[in-house]
Design goal:
The chain has about 60 residues and is an alpha+beta fold. About 30% of the residues lie in helices and about 15% in strands. A hairpin with an 8-residue loop joins strand 1 (about 1-5) and strand 2.
């Protein structure tokens, strides 16, 4: 699985192969089909909104 983070500013998710970048992250399988579908998946936009606005979502 490859970790992606929200870079902010409405940009596309950025791969984080070392899994050390700050920010909200999520995972996607490395298969080309999965990566293509990532662009269609709107869930990453919702995750990035919290980061962009400086909000942290409560866990629990």
């Amino acid at each position: 699985m490859t970790r992606y983070v929200c870079p902010g500013g409405g940009q596309e998710p950025t791969p984080d192969p070392t899994q050390t970048m700050p920010g909200r992250g999520f995972y996607c399988c490395p298969a080309p089909t999965c990566i293509r579908q990532l662009g269609k998946y709107k869930g990453w936009r919702k995750k990035c909104q919290g980061e962009k606005r400086g909000r942290k979502q409560a866990s629990g």
